[in-house]
Write a structure and sequence with these properties.
The protein is of the alpha/beta class and 166 residues long. It has one domain (7-165): Vaccinia Virus protein VP39 (Rossmann fold, 3-Layer(aba) Sandwich), CATH 3.40.50. It is 40% helix and 26% strand. It has six helices and seven strands, in the order αβαβαβαβαβαββ. It has helices at 7-20, 34-46, 58-70, 84-89, 107-114, 133-144, and strands at residues 24-28, 50-55, 77-81, 95-100, 118-126, 149-154, 160-165. It has a seven-stranded mixed sheet, with helices on both faces. Helix 3 links the parallel strand 2 and strand 3. It binds S-adenosylmethionine.
């Protein structure tokens, strides 16, 4: 079974990136790079920006980077290998978009670590809100009760959380 996003979700990420025109996108859980490629292709169309990809599995990282290079998108992607919790602990740059797609039980923990890196107006995206509804519930409740974030679950695919930092 593939854990990668579907083409429909990919088109959504592509078009949302074109709309937002982000300087920097943080992707949490990149696997072999399917979602990374949709973000990076949108940045190529825009002619600027970067997507920071994160992945713990070394062999997936290797495949991701081969995919990025074969599509000619390397200048739009930075890859951080290793546990995303260690990766984000060292970051101090700010982001215009974050896409959360690690294992669902980690959504709230990782979001609480990256929240301070998000600019006002930043877009928050999280996959698997329906397919992992029990595991993502703490994250969903945290967003729902956060006065600094407006959010809703988009009713397509595996359930996609869309949030905006106020
Ligand atoms: C659902 S897949 C991501 C799919 C990817 N976004 C795509 O569209 O191809 C989840 C990925 O998160 C990675 N992952 C899970 N926990 C992680 C962690 N703590 N740090 C980094 N990567 C992690 C897994 O190895 C897996 O490849």
């Amino acid at each position: 079974m593939s854990l990668a996003i579907s083409p429909e979700m990919g088109e959504f990420l592509f078009n949302l990136t074109l709309l937002k025109r982000p300087k920097a996108i943080l992707e949490l859980g990149s696997s072999r790079g399917v979602s990374t490629l949709y973000f990076a292709e949108a940045l190529r169309v825009l002619g600027k920006g970067k997507v920071v990809a994160t992945e713990i599995d070394e062999s997936k990282c290797d495949t991701l980077w081969q995919n990025v290079q074969s599509m000619g998108l390397a200048s739009y992607v930075d890859l951080f290998r290793g546990d995303v919790f260690s990766t984000v602990a060292t970051m101090n740059e700010s982001f215009d978009m974050v896409f959360i797609d690690i294992w669902a039980s980690g959504y709230l923990d990782v979001f609480q670590k990256v929240e301070k890196l998000l600019k006002p107006g930043a877009i928050i995206l999280a996959d698997n809100m329906y397919t992992s509804s029990d595991e993502v519930l703490p994250f969903k409740n945290f967003l729902n009760n956060n006065p600094g974030i407006s959010n809703m679950t988009l009713d397509f695919e595996s359930g996609v959380e869309l949030g905006i930092v106020l």
